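Write out the 3D structure for:
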Amino acid sequence: MANNKKERQSAAFVLGVGLTKFIKPRNQVDYPELGFEAGVKALLDAGINYDNVDRGIACYCYGDSTCGQRVFYQFGMTGIPIYNVSNNCSTGSTGLSMARDMVSYGLADCIMVLGFEKMAPGSLKSTYKDRASPLDTTALLVRDTVGFTSASLGAQVFANAGREYMEKYGAKASDFAEIARINHIHSVQNPYSQFRKAYTLAEILGSPVIHPPLTKLQCCPTSDGAAAAIVVSESFLRTRPHLVQQNAILIAGQCLATDSPSLFNRSAISLAGADMTSQAAHRALGEACLSPSDIRVCELHDCFSTNELITLDALGLCSEKGKAHEMVRRGDITYGGSCVVNPSGGLISKGHPLGASGIAQCAELVWHLRGWANNRLVDGVGAALQHNLGLGGAVVVTVYKRADGKVAKALTDEEVMGGSGVGYNPATESRGLPTLTEVDRVRSRVARSEWALGETPGKRISPKL
């Protein structure tokens, strides 16, 4: 991997985050309303107005080429550059990486990253049937190495990786099911999760088989939803002392990586992106001056439980390669263990609206480092790790730290309300679109268009959907 020799001019901080509840894709809410809700919440959380935003980055996989403008114009038509980003399941984190680079290299001081998705029910499918798929080479290798089945390509790729891990290192099907069991338990405390139900190990193993060793309750669902983050420079914070400085979370290390030739070395684990994950983790942790043993909370791309297990290895979170299943058996991926993985419930429970997932991971970790996630907090944490991966392929690994160098301490909901722009604790309570007064506060004062906004504010999204 080539080194970027140019020095960054500024640190980059996540100043505000916002989420919608992730819901089943049943055509209940359209993407302009989803994106607008998440964006309003993020601007309120940051304590700024859209006129402060220098650039917009829209992250989505399913939609026409300028869906980003359709969402951003609701806040204002200020003439700023708006980028539409699609990078498979890592789309949201790719947008965050772009924002950090733009801020760090002096191209902007305040960037709004907005991920949204309106999906179809069922497993992911290719949109275009009249041209080559970017995953054709992956599918051919699956066919030539282990044979192709009727399951979705994603399920086959990640299930095959789990089977290879079983053969090489001695993991069992119950280890993958245990990962799903833990994530489902974690989801109960996350108000944004699509599914908030705990299951027994027997229930998970007994759910319909998708592609051995994976069963249905070990696979993430498709979802509709949106997430937003405001990324700002150090000078932006310094010149605005009225902002709640302790809410700003430093992006201490980050790497967006793509595959190496080892992708096609006929290893199912490599085909699932483990090698590029290892590269990205090494770079991101090194930039943050941390080692994997320093990480005690992590949001990891668990599109399937098998991917969580091989990624524990790839990120270096287990003490020895090939021992990730032993880490799971010891209870080291949940509360009381060495590293709480997916306190949000992960993609398996929370849902996976592709463009929003990476930004939702960011929001979860921001809330932990602020001490706001008081119903699921990992106490005493000063750094957090994020992993977001897409086949095809791209992965983003990010390390966050508190800007003040302190460790997180749990704040009560009442304490959070004093520093929360939305008037409640968004880490423990999911509400719909804020009030019209709050919407008015964050929309552009100089270049708003009521025609672009349309009827969006009147389309309230119930947290019970």
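The longest helix spans residues 153-169.
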